Amino acid sequence: MVRIHSVIAATAAIMLISSPVLAHARLVSATPGNGTTVTAPRTISLTFSERFAAPFSTVEVEDSRGRAISLTKAVSEDGKTLGGSFAAPLTTGVYRVTWAIAAADGHRMTGAHSFTVR
Amino acid sequence: MSIDLTVVGLRWLQFAAAVLAFGLPLFQAFGLREPGPQSARRAAIIAGLVLSVAALGGLLAQTAMMAGGWEAGLAPDALSYVVQSTSLGIAHVVRAGLALLGVAALVLGREQRAGEWVAILAFAGAVASFAWSGHGAGSEGSLGLLHLAADIAHALAAAVWLSALVAFCLLLIRPKPREAAGTARSLAGFASVGTVAVAVLVMTGLINAAFLIGAAGLDRITGSTWGLLLIAKLVLVAVMVGLAAHNRFTLTPALSRAVEAQTDTAHAVRRLRISIGLEMLAGFSLLGLVAAMGVQMPPASM
Description:
Chain A is mainly beta. Helix content of chain A is 14%, strand content 44%. The model of chain B has no long low-confidence stretch (mean pLDDT 89). Chain B is an all-alpha fold. Classes of the chains: A mainly beta, B mainly alpha.
């Protein structure tokens, strides 16, 4: 019985301290962020909590008419930030960012958000 | 065909095949006093072959899942990236290789103890490799090793339990009256192994839950698909433990008494066959739930 109690106690202790270490990538920050208004951005960046598989990551930006804006994709050295740079600064309007990444554990995640350029 | 569904289906097939490939030779070596049925050996060889093919299929499907489509996933570049740069990819290749090694050992080392041992160890490695293609390898830091070890022990204990059920079903499906005594002894002998397996499953299951749910994730269990699958899994575990207890404390003693009294064992054997068959069915359904849990987000990662 003592052993069972120690196992339960040890498990409870692990439970209390373990939750933040599970390696699933999630979006931590985006620039420009969702719903923000910015002036003539030349780049966008999306930072995730964990490294992701660079070859399977995509980021696309389209304007309010649904036209894709040409961008050059880049992944940071630490493998956590997905970025894109535009050939020219974005002009006034509402833009939508859609992204997809695959975490190293096989999970694919997608997301989208919008920002305004004035 | 849906990629997610294919990944889940191939994960289930790999689990089921690995359980049989690892567990049946193990049962033959330790669970029986007399040489076991040839059907168990043949089943282990077929399961090993299925495991190696399913592992390679699983690698393709998992790559397609990561790449976001079949076409992108089947590209040589994508596959070579997953095999070389992700533990998930390496685990699938190693699993397929170990499964083939196990099959070769069973075929070439026929009737030899060494061949049997190589096969058991190779298939045990294949079972352990599941820890790297599920959530077991997802935890980082010094506690990550504990999660990985718990996941490996969980998979091995589950394989021992489930494969014994299959082996007993093979023994009970076409029972010969003169073998009833041996079957009764094996069933009684498995009681302690089964209890240890259940204890290991409970302990390692709690450790895994600690990592995958965490204190903060407890209130998200019922709100997530992963959590609902876990609840369904626990219900099946409770059913299996209930049936196991019924087999151990009621049905096996009844068979032993019939054997000792040299009366007809057919009735006791039939009841055991139904009960163990149901327990096995619950076990393989449970593997399906675990296969689905692997593609869902656990609460700790939300």
